[in-house]
Design a protein that fits this description.
The complex is a heterotrimer. By secondary structure, chain A is of the alpha/beta class. Chain A has 16 helices and 22 strands. In chain A, the strands form 4 sheets. A 9-stranded mixed sheet of chain A has the order 5-4-6-7-3-8-9-10-11, with helices on both faces. Chain B is about 35% helix and about 30% strand. In chain B, the strands form 2 sheets. Chain B has a 10-stranded mixed sheet with strand order 6-5-4-7-8-3-9-10-11-12, with helices on both faces. The longest helix of chain B is centred in the middle third of the chain and has 17 residues, at about 145-160. The chains are: A alpha/beta, B alpha/beta, C alpha+beta.
C-alpha cells in the first residue's frame, strides 16, 4: 500500500505509517482546535521532509496571515513558494467548485504538487442545494485524486456537542476530529480522534496532542508502541543496587520491565527508588531519571542526604536526573512520552516514577486507567527502560485500580511495616516477578546510612 | 589447592589421619572455662601459618581478647590483619565497634547470615577458616525453628564455598533438643569437658561424629600450657 | 734501575692478588686485607726498630714518624701531606706520584672498591702503636689528587671469624661452625621429642640471640635503618640467607624484610618437613627480626613470616608491626 507520511509527530503511527496516497482526509473541529495548523504542517512536511510539493487553497484567510502563522512554527512558506515547491491559492468556494475553471489543476501542475490543503470546505455550504453540494464536493475530491493529490480538507464544526453526520464524511476517505476539551482539574486538553479511514487501519480512540513551537505533536503511547517492533533479546539481568534484593531476584531484574513498588509512607520506597538510580550510576554506570509527581527535587535531595551515596554529585555529573512535575499539570501520555524522550536524550536506562498514584488521580474510569497503564508500561518496556513505579500501599486502592496496575506491570514489590517482638520491622515481599523464580515470603528490610538493605529470609 | 587441614595440636592431629578437608564444619562444645577459645586460637594459628585466611567472629569477648591471646603465643595479629589474612567480626560490642566488620543486632539472625556471607564473599577463592566463638551466643535470641533454618541455610552455604568452619557452642546455652539436631549437621564434633580422677580434675576432649544417632569418638586428656596452648597427652586414654 | 722496577711491580702484584682473593673469602674480605696490613707493618716496624722513634702519642705524630721512617729507608716512598682535623687525619697526595698508583688504577679497571695501601699502613700503625681502630675513606679529585681521611672507628666487625689456637671466634666471641646436618639433627630431635615445642623453640632461640646481638650493636649506630642493614649484612655473611630490608616506615614502626634462600628452607627441603602440613618455617629468623626491631624502634614489635620459600614463595617474606595496635585510634585520627 502506497502511503503518505504526514510528517506530523506522533500521527503517522496512528495510521500505521501514513495516509493512503490519493485519499482525501477531512480535518474537522471547532474554531481554535488547530485544524489549519494541522493542514499546513501536512503540506509543509511534505515539501521539506518528503520532497512532495504542495498547494494550499484558502477561502478563509489572506495569504499574509497564513505566512505569518506558519512562521510562528519556523515554517517559511514564502521561501518554499519562491523555490517552486508550494503555491498558495486564495480563492472562493464558487471558483473552486467550478469545474470549468480548473484553477487548482493549473497550480498543481505548476509545482508538481502531491499534497493539497483546502481550508476550508465549510465554505462549500454557500451552495445551498444539498444535492448539488454533495455532487460538487464529490467531484472536487475526485478531481484532486485524479491529479494524484493526497488532500486535507478542513471543516469547521459549530460546537463540540454537535454530532451531525455530514455528507462529507461519506465522500472523503478519512475523518480526523480535533477537539479542545475540558478535563478534570480545570484545564483544557487538545484531543485528536481518527473517526474513519477508508482502505486502511487506524488506531481508534482519543489521543492528546499539543501545539508546540515546532508544530503539532500527538501523544499517543499506543501509536508510539506500534513503531517499536517487538524486540527479541537475551534476558539481561540488571542489578538493582539494593543489597539482598538481587539475591531474592536470583541475580537482578530482567532489563526492560516495569515493576511496581508499593508501600505506605515510611516503608522506604522513595529511598529504594533513589538508591536504584544512585547505585545504578555509581556501580553500573547507568544513567537514570527520577520523575517525581509529588515531592520536589529539594525534598528528595534532602531525603538522600542521609545516605552515603551523594545524590547531588550524581545529579551534577548528569548521571541521575530528577524531574518534578506536579500532578496538576500532567497528562499521562504526554508525561510518559516526554519522559522517554528525556531519557533517550541523556541515555538513561533506569527510570523511577514516583508515584503511580498521580496517574490514578487523573481518571475515575478504571477501563481507561487500565488502558493507560497498559500503554505506559508497554511503551517504556519497548524502549528497554527498566522502570520502578512507586506507589501507595495496595490496601488503600480499590480493587479496580489495583487490578489496573497489577495486571499491567511485570513485577510487584511490596514494602511493609509489620509489628514483631514489640516493635515494628520493615519487610519486603516480592509479590510477583514475571520470568524470575524469585524467593517468596517476607524479608527483613533495613534502612541504614548506605540505604536500603534486604536480608533474604533464611531457608527461603 | 591443598585439601587437608589440621588443628595445629599434635596429639589431636595425629589421630585425624588425613586431616579435615576444607568445606567441612567442626562443632566444638564445652563447659565454660574448659578451653574452647584456646582451641580456636590453635586452629587459627595453624591456619595463619599454613597460609589460610582466618575469620574470627568474636561474640563472647571483644576481638582484642583474641589478639592478645595470639600474642601470648608470639603470634602477631597486626601483620596478618594488615595483609587481610586475619579478619575479625565484632559481634560483642553493642554499638560503636572500631572493627571493620561488626554485628550488634542479635535479634535478626538473618542479618548475621548476610554479614557472614558478605565477608566470606570478599575472600572467595582463598582457603578460609571461619571460627564463630561462640555460635550459641548468636542463637540465644532466636526460636527453635529459626535456629534450625539458620543452621541448614548457613551450613549449606559454607559447604558450597569450601570454608573450613569451627562453630563453638557453650554447654547449656541451647536446648538439648536443638543441640541434638545441630550435631547432625557437622562433619566433626569436639566435646570438651572436665572429668574427675582420683586426685584432680582433668580436662578431656572427645573427637568424633554422629553416626546413626550415636556419637562415635576418641577420647583425649589435655592440658592448657601458657607456652604451647593445648597439649594433648600422648595417646593416653585414647579410644574407648 | 730495572731491578727496582721489577721489585715494585712484584709488590703491587702481590697486593693486588691478595686484594682480589680476600673478596672471595667468606666473612668480611676487607677485614682480612687489614689483617695483612697489620702483619706486614708490624714486621716492618720490628725489623727496623732502630730506624725510628715514636716520641708522641698523637696519631698525627705517629703517622709522620712512620712516613719519615719509610722515606729514610727508601727515598720518596711516600709523598703524602698529613694534616690534623679534630679526631680526623687528612692525608693527601698526587696520585701520579704515588708508588702504588698502578695498583690503584688496576682496582678501578676491575671495578673493585678503592683500597689505599698507604692509608691501610697508617691504619695498621695506629692499631699497633695505639691499639686504636681507625677507618678511612678516600676519594680522588678530577685533578688527580687523592684525599684520604682517617677517623676513629667503632664499627663492629660482627661477621669476622678468627681462630686462635683451637678457639674459633666470631667477632671476638667464641663460636662454632657446624654443617647443616648437625643443625638439622637438632631440629629433628626436637620434633621427635616435643613436636609441639618446635616452633616455639626456634622463635625463642632467634629472639634471645637477636637480643644479645642488637644490644651490643645498637649504640654503635645512630641511624636505625643503617643499623638494620648492617645487621642484615651480618646475617647474610653468616649464612642465614640473603636478608634484605625491603621497606621501613619509622612512623608506624613497620618493616618488610625478605630472605632469599633461607638456610631453614634448604634444610627442610633436604631433611624433610618440620610440621604436619606445609607452612611457614623460618621462626628462628622471625624471632631474630622481632628482637632487632623491638630494640631498635624501642617498642614491642612482632614479626610474622607471611610467605615462605618452603611453600612455593620466591623468597621468605616477613612483616613486622607493633604487636598490639590500638584499634580505633586509627579511625579516630582519620575522622
Amino acid at each position: 500500500m502506497n502511503k503518505v507520511s504526514t510528517g506530523i509527530k506522533g500521527f503517522d503511527e496512528l495510521v500505521y505509517g501514513g495516509i493512503v496516497r490519493g485519499n482525501s482526509v477531512l480535518v474537522e473541529g471547532v474554531p481554535g482546535a488547530g485544524k489549519t495548523t494541522f493542514g499546513i504542517e501536512f503540506v509543509y512536511r511534505g515539501i521539506t521532509e518528503f520532497d512532495e510539493p504542495g498547494v494550499i487553497v484558502t477561502c478563509e484567510e489572506l495569504p499574509e496571515s497564513i505566512y505569518r502563522d506558519a512562521l510562528n512554527f519556523g515554517w517559511d512558506l514564502r521561501e518554499l513558494e519562491e523555490a517552486n515547491k508550494l503555491r498558495i491559492l486564495c480563492t472562493s468556494p464558487e471558483v473552486l467548485a467550478d469545474t470549468d475553471v480548473n484553477l487548482v489543476e493549473e497550480v498543481v501542475r505548476e509545482v508538481g504538487a502531491k499534497r493539497i490543503l483546502v481550508d476550508s470546505v465549510s465554505h462549500f455550504h454557500v451552495l445551498n442545494d444539498p444535492i448539488s453540494l454533495r455532487r460538487t464536493v464529490y467531484g472536487f475530491c475526485n478531481g484532486l485524486r485524479r491529479l494524484g493529490l493526497t488532500s486535507f480538507l478542513v471543516k469547521e464544526r459549530e460546537s463540540e456537542g454537535q454530532r451531525e453526520y455530514a455528507f462529507e464524511e461519506y465522500v472523503v476517505d478519512a475523518v480526523i476530529r480535533l477537539e479542545n476539551k475540558e478535563r478534570p482539574g480545570l484545564h483544557r486538553q487538545r484531543v485528536l480522534e481518527i473517526c474513519k479511514t477508508r482502505g486502511q487501519q487506524h488506531i481508534p480512540g482519543q489521543q492528546t496532542f499539543s501545539i508546540t513551537d515546532e508544530g503539532i505533536k500527538v501523544f499517543a503511547l499506543i501509536g508510539a508502541l506500534t513503531s517499536y517492533g517487538e524486540t527479541e533479546q537475551e534476558i539481561e539481568l540488571l542489578h538493582t543496587g539494593v543489597p539482598g534484593l538481587d539475591d531474592l531476584l536470583k541475580g537482578g531484574l530482567p532489563r526492560g520491565i516495569t515493576v511496581a513498588v508499593a508501600g505506605s509512607s515510611g516503608t522506604g520506597k522513595t529511598v529504594l527508588g533513589l538508591q536504584y538510580l544512585a547505585k545504578g550510576a555509581i556501580d553500573y554506570g547507568e544513567k537514570g531519571i527520577y520523575l517525581s509527581l509529588e515531592e520536589t527535587p529539594s525534598q528528595l535531595l534532602a531525603n538522600a542526604r542521609l545516605f552515603t551515596w551523594n545524590l547531588n554529585n550524581l545529579r551534577e555529573q548528569g548521571l541521575v536526573k530528577i524531574i518534578y512535575r506536579p500532578i496538576s499539570s500532567m497528562e499521562i501520555d504526554e508525561t510518559i512520552i516526554w519522559l522517554s524522550e528525556t531519557a533517550e536524550s541523556i541515555g538513561a536506562r533506569r527510570l523511577v516514577i514516583d508515584s503511580f498514584y498521580g496517574f490514578m488521580s487523573r481518571t475515575d474510569n478504571t477501563a481507561v486507567l487500565h488502558e493507560k497503564f497498559y500503554h505506559l508500561v508497554s511503551y517504556l518496556n519497548r524502549l528497554n527502560y527498566t522502570t520502578l513505579l512507586l506507589g501507595p500501599s495496595w490496601e488503600i486502592l480499590d480493587s479496580g485500580k489495583l487490578e489496573a496496575i497489577q495486571s499491567t506491570v511485570q513485577g510487584s514489590i511490596l514494602l511493609k511495616s509489620t509489628p514483631m517482638q514489640n516493635r515494628r520491622v520493615r519487610q519486603l515481599e516480592l509479590y510477583k516477578m514475571r520470568g524470575v523464580n524469585h524467593v517468596m515470603g517476607n524479608h527483613l528490610l533495613e534502612i541504614n546510612n548506605s540505604g536500603v538493605q534486604v536480608f533474604p529470609r533464611l531457608g527461603g | 589447592m591443598r585439601k587437608a587441614a589440621y588443628f595445629g595440636i599434635e596429639g589431636l592431629d595425629r589421630n585425624l589421619g588425613k586431616g579435615v578437608s576444607y568445606g567441612s564444619q567442626i562443632a566444638v562444645e564445652g563447659d565454660s572455662g574448659i578451653g574452647k577459645t584456646v582451641l580456636a586460637g590453635e586452629f587459627i594459628k595453624e591456619g595463619l601459618r599454613c597460609g589460610d585466611t582466618c575469620i574470627y567472629v568474636a561474640c563472647d569477648e571483644p576481638p582484642v581478647a583474641m589478639r592478645e591471646h595470639l600474642l601470648s603465643f608470639k603470634v602477631g595479629a597486626p601483620a596478618y590483619e594488615e595483609m587481610d589474612r586475619l579478619i575479625f567480626i565484632d559481634a560483642y560490642e553493642e554499638s560503636g565497634s572500631a572493627e571493620k566488620y561488626a554485628f550488634s543486632d542479635h535479634r535478626h539472625l538473618v542479618k548475621y547470615y548476610v554479614l557472614e556471607k558478605e565477608v566470606l564473599r570478599c575472600y572467595a577463592g582463598r582457603r578460609v577458616r571461619l571460627v564463630v566463638d561462640s555460635l550459641s551466643t548468636l542463637l540465644t535470641m532466636a526460636d527453635t525453628s529459626e535456629v534450625l533454618e539458620f543452621h541448614r541455610t548457613r551450613i549449606k552455604q559454607l559447604r558450597k564455598s569450601g570454608v573450613l568452619a569451627m562453630d563453638i557452642f557453650v554447654n547449656g546455652v541451647l536446648e538439648p533438643r536443638v543441640m541434638t539436631i545441630t550435631n547432625h549437621l557437622y562433619n566433626l564434633i569436639i566435646k570438651m569437658s572436665f572429668t574427675s580422677s582420683t586426685y584432680s580434675s582433668l580436662r578431656q576432649l572427645q573427637v568424633g561424629k554422629v553416626k546413626s544417632q550415636q556419637f562415635v569418638s576418641s577420647r583425649h586428656i589435655f592440658t592448657i600450657s601458657p607456652l604451647y596452648g593445648i597439649v594433648v597427652a600422648a595417646d593416653m586414654g585414647v579410644g574407648e | 734501575m730495572k731491578n727496582k722496577d721489577f721489585l715494585l711491580e712484584t709488590i703491587r702484584r702481590i697486593y693486588f692478588s691478595m686484594y682480589k682473593t680476600v673478596g672471595q673469602l667468606p666473612f668480611s674480605g676487607q677485614y682480612w686485607l687489614e689483617q695483612f696490613m697489620i702483619e706486614i707493618t708490624s714486621h716492618l716496624l720490628q725489623d727496623h726498630k732502630d730506624d725510628y722513634q715514636f716520641n708522641s702519642e698523637e696519631p698525627v705524630d705517629i703517622c709522620r714518624t712512620f712516613f719519615n721512617f719509610l722515606n729514610n729507608v727508601y727515598p720518596n716512598w711516600v709523598n703524602n701531606q698529613l694534616e690534623e682535623s679534630g679526631d680526623n687525619l687528612l692525608v693527601s697526595s698526587e696520585r701520579d706520584g704515588c708508588i702504588y698508583s698502578n695498583f690503584c688504577l688496576q682496582t678501578q679497571t676491575e671495578d673493585l672498591p678503592l683500597f689505599c695501601i698507604h692509608l691501610g699502613s697508617l691504619q695498621a700503625v695506629l692499631r699497633i702503636v695505639l691499639d686504636k681502630h681507625y677507618a678511612y675513606s678516600v676519594k680522588i679529585t678530577e685533578e688527580g689528587i687523592c684525599q684520604g681521611r682517617l677517623f676513629p672507628s667503632t664499627q663492629l666487625k660482627e661477621e669476622i671469624v678468627t681462630r686462635q689456637g683451637h678457639e674459633l671466634k666470631l667477632a671476638g666471641r667464641r663460636a662454632i661452625l657446624f654443617p647443616k646436618e648437625m643443625y638439622a639433627s637438632m631440629l629433628m630431635s626436637i620434633k621427635n621429642h616435643v613436636p609441639h615445642a618446635l616452633k616455639h623453640v626456634l622463635y625463642e632461640a632467634g629472639y634471645q640471640s637477636g637480643l644479645q646481638t642488637i644490644r651490643r650493636v645498637r649504640a654503635l649506630h645512630a641511624d636505625v635503618e643503617e643499623c638494620l642493614r648492617f645487621l642484615f649484612d651480618a646475617l647474610t655473611n653468616a649464612g642465614f640467607g640473603r636478608v634484605e630490608l625491603e621497606s621501613l616506615d619509622l612512623t608506624i614502626a613497620k618493616a618488610r624484610i625478605r630472605c632469599y634462600d633461607s638456610f631453614q628452607v634448604v634444610i627442610t627441603n633436604e631433611y624433610g618437613q618440620l610440621y604436619r602440613s606445609p607452612q611457614v618455617i623460618c621462626d628462628l629468623l622471625r624471632g631474630v627480626f622481632t628482637a632487632y626491631l623491638s630494640v631498635l624502634l624501642d617498642r614491642d614489635i612482632i614479626c610474622e613470616e607471611m610467605n615462605c620459600q618452603s611453600v612455593g614463595g620466591d623468597y621468605c617474606e616477613f612483616l613486622a608491626l607493633p604487636s598490639l595496635q590500638e584499634k580505633g585510634s586509627e579511625e579516630g585520627t582519620r575522622g
